[in-house]
Amino acid sequence: MKQKIIGVYEMGYRKVQVVLRDGHGAEYWALPGDIDFPRMKIGMKGTWKTVLARVVHEAFEMSAESLRVRYFESQDNSGEAGNYLFVFTHCQFAKIADEVGEFMAAAVPDIAKACQKWNKKKRKAKS
User: Could you tell me which of 84, 60, 66 has the C-alpha nearest to residue 74?
Assistant: First the structure.
């Protein structure tokens, strides 16, 4: 699977490594093991709008988890993302928005450039 590290960006009191990868979807690891800060992997398949939505989704969820407002809806801890429940106050929502905004302002220009290069290489490979 093709992957490319884009950079490390601040989100609140932590840093987040952003990695682009082949495929759909996205995920993050709070403690990936080989680095001392979270890693976010973003699938590059789809439109720019879709890729950007994945970044927003993962950044929001990462911030919510750090504020401890993400819960399992049931005792089934199978790892299914559909089992998460988010409960937060407006003040906590504002904190999440601040962190996500800080992260997006720094990371999105680099992600956009990398996305253009990624898609150009894909188009050339198909030609």
Answer: 84
Cβ-proximal residues to 102 (8 Å cutoff; 6+ apart), any chain: 10, 11, 12
Instruction: Convert the pLDDT of each residue in 94-113 to its tens digit.
Output: 999 999 999 999 999 999 99
Entry pTM: 0.88
- Give the integer Cα–Cα distance in Å for 56 and 58: 6
The boundaries of the domain holding residue 51 are 3-126
Domains of the chain: total: 1
Name the percent of the chain in helix, strand, coil, to the closest 5.
45, 25, 30
Q: How many angstroms separate the CA atoms of 109 and 107, rounded? A: 6
Tell me: the pLDDT tens digits for 23-41? 999 999 999 999 999 999 9
Q: What angle do CA 116, 102, 5 make, to 5 degrees?
A: 40
